[in-house]
Amino acid sequence: MIDALRIDAEEQRAWAGPWFRIGGSLALLAVLWAVTVPAEPRFRLCAFHWLTGRQCPLCGMTRALFALGKGRFSEAVHFNALSPLGSVMLFSLFWSGAWRARLWSAGIAAFAVYGVWRVMGA
To answer: pTM value?
Structure first.
């Protein structure tokens, strides 16, 4: 009975195959394109901004990702300078490989440096 409930490795690979990855990427892109968020939010969800009045490394990233989904690159960079990198990191979650780990390591380092720069008020 328990053996009947187990999913073998081949079935798991078929589920997480290229069609799932392509479909997930396209669905995410469709949501980013179809949904419009306000350019200036009514209230900020960032606890760091509430406490310090300064922007954290991710402040503006939601608005920037939705702007990128609509092809508004300059608007996205205005909201968050690292939004193109954040977008690539987000879409990389649908793919696997050694390059994804390197991308995320470099991305986290870039966001850390950007965060220090933002906090220092530059």
So the answer is: 0.74
